[in-house]
Write a structure and sequence with these properties.
heterodimer; A: 256 residues; B: 331 residues; Ferritin; 13 helices; globular; binds fe (ii) ion
């Protein structure tokens, strides 16, 4: 049974961006299972991945309903082509090491927190409810990752250098968070959610003091640009999808 | 918290008194005979303490090595619901490892010492995790048979004589039964699916059945448990537990619609139990002694994680040290 599509312009795309961010970062973090530096972090990374996959399920289910073509969370998660995923490029980058993993989680959670905060007042009641539930998780991820950024940045010389290298590598990808676009304009005009470029000040206010405490140098902005949220991904995305989609692609139509 | 795993071993400072003393021994024996609990601060015979450290730490190691075969499928889970369930499960297994290391630490060893013994190959972990996970149904079969066999083994441990171990086991057993039900549910869903899905389930059952049966250890006639039985650590014999497991599992296999790979498996009305075929003990001992398909890879994965993470643990210690110095200076 298909509902009529009554979503405002950009609404579905906007919810897909939210859902895909959670899905793709959750997928990346789940690669850590059994390989973390200490048992507690094995559990914390699995827990963060679990939170994100939970958010993705709610958001993709919602996007599917808005779309009204009968696609459920799994059809959206596993059966789209690469160009139809709307996650930030930052989310799909390889984990590399524990340093890059926690710096990424930190930069991302610092973005998710103000975003979910605004979304709790969304004119889309379903979205507001998901945001309220997810905000608590994002706040926890932010404080957990932030503590590690400080430990690594203000730890040994080796850890400082690794944390700085991770920050330097990831920082250019954060420009994409705030790249203005017509979808954001339409969605914010309709009261569905904030335009992401309006979150930059909040994000910086959360990020910079922690980096300073971690004795890390905040990188300067460069002309580098990435376009994952517009459907143009990095070389890493295809490999992530090949792994994630394998069962659904190999056994079409099977129920699990 | 994570700092616990970074603690420096301080052997003599913690743990029970090590002197052998006939009066204490009599008190200990009386407590065991009355079915009471021994607590961390109580006197205990050195052999009891050592046996517990070995058993609890082996169990802890099994929990964390067990994260690897299941972790092998998280990134390929076929639906988001199953991915979430599996992530929650491996997180539980890590938690079991933590409770058990904490229980072992009450006996005067540090987690790091125990961990070193695992990584150097000196300490054992359950051989079952040296088998590979080859298709998605393996994840369901591990829940159903491996967690199922673990529960059979572990329920009696909820009443074992060492208080901290018994309390850890109560918590763990609850979660293990949840895992078993989820594993079975995964298999039911696959059996309702396509012929290919049913073949995957049968293939997984064929590979995991005998190793699961072996999880109960050697036959009673070939194993020495007199002390652990007398001490109230081991309460039911290997063969009795194995029989209980087989009896319960045969019916579950019927409901599922899979066959168990044992032509000698049949109901024995006289015994009121299922008879089953001879266990290949050569295979069992081969895997125990390090020649299973995954022994080398599993240990290498844990060693790599530990070595790759060294700079992170050092950073955490150094940061804590700097912070303590600053706080002292500020005071
Ligand atoms: Fe266990
Ligand atoms: Fe467990
Ligand atoms: Fe389990």
């Amino acid at each position: 049974m298909t509902q009529r599509n009554t979503a405002a312009p950009g609404h579905i795309e906007y919810v897909l961006r939210l859902g895909d961010n959670a899905l793709i970062l959750g997928q990346r973090l789940s690669e850590w299972c059994g390989h973390a530096p200490v048992l507690e972090e094995d559990m914390a990374l699995a827990n963060t991945a679990l939170d994100l996959i939970g958010q993705a399920r709610l958001l993709l289910t919602h996007a599917g309903r808005l779309e009204g073509r009968g696609r459920d969370e799994d059809q959206l998660a596993f059966l789209r082509g690469e160009r139809d995923y709307r996650n930030l490029t930052l989310a799909e980058l390889p984990n590399e090491d524990f340093g890059r993993t926690v710096v990424r989680n930190f930069l991302f959670a610092a973005f998710q927190v103000p975003l979910y905060q605004r979304l709790t007042a969304s004119s889309d009641a379903e979205l507001a409810a998901v945001a309220a539930k997810s905000l608590k998780e994002a706040r926890y991820h932010l404080s957990h990752a932030g503590e590690w950024v400080i430990r690594l940045g203000d730890g040994t010389d080796v850890s400082h250098d690794k944390a700085q290298a991770a920050l330097d590598y990831l920082w250019p990808y954060t420009a994409e968070f705030f790249a203005a676009n017509p979808i954001d304009d339409a969605v914010s005009a309709a009261g569905i959610g904030p335009a992401w470029h309006n979150l930059e000040a909040d994000w910086e206010a959360a990020v910079v003091p922690v980096l300073v405490e971690a004795t890390l140098t905040v990188p300067a902005r460069t002309p580098f640009a990435s376009y994952g949220k517009f459907g143009r991904h990095s070389e890493h995305m295809g490999h992530l999808l090949a792994t994630m989609q394998t069962m659904q692609r190999t056994y079409p139509g099977a129920q699990w | 918290m994570y700092t616990q795993s970074l603690s420096i071993p301080d052997g003599e400072a913690r743990g029970p008194k090590k002197v052998e003393n006939p009066a204490y021994q009599a008190e200990f024996d009386a407590k065991i005979a009355a079915g009471g609990f021994i607590e961390a601060k109580d006197w205990m015979p050195e052999a009891y303490r050592k046996t517990l450290i070995r058993q609890i730490s082996q169990h802890a190691h099994s929990e964390i090595v067990g994260m690897l075969p299941e972790g092998n499928w998280i990134t390929r889970a076929p639906s988001l619901k199953r991915k979430a369930i599996l992530l929650a499960k491996v997180q539980d297994e890590g938690g079991h490892g933590l409770y058990l290391y904490a229980a072992a630490e009450t006996l005067g060893v540090s987690r790091d010492e125990l961990y070193e013994a695992l990584l150097s190959g000196k300490a054992k972990y359950s051989s079952i995790f040296n088998y590979p996970t080859l298709n998605w149904a393996d994840i369901g079969v591990i829940g159903w048979l491996v967690d199922g066999a673990a529960i059979m083994n572990q329920i009696p441990l909820c009443k074992c004589s060492y208080g901290p171990y018994s309390r850890a086991m109560v918590r763990i057993c609850k979660e293990e039964s949840f895992h078993q039900r989820q594993g079975y549910d995964l298999l039911l869903a696959m059996m309702r699916g396509t012929p290919e899905q049913r073949d995957m389930v049968q293939d997984a059952v064929n590979r995991w059945w005998w190793p699961s049966i072996m999880m109960f250890g050697p036959h009673d006639k070939d194993s020495v448990h007199t002390e652990t039985t007398r001490w109230g650590i081991k309460r039911i014999s290997n063969d009795d537990l194995r029989q209980k497991f087989v009896d319960a599992t045969v019916k579950q296999a019927e409901v599922l619609g899979v066959s168990l790979p044992d032509p000698d498996l049949k109901w024995n009305a006289e015994r009121g139990h299922y008879d089953f075929g001879a266990i290949d003990w050569d295979e069992f001992w081969n895997v125990v002694q390090g020649h299973g398909q995954c022994n080398v890879d599993r240990l290498a994965a844990r060693v790599k994680a530990w070595e790759d993470g060294a700079w992170v643990r050092e950073a955490a210690l150094e940061h804590a040290r700097k912070r303590a110095v600053r706080e002292k200076d500020a005071a």
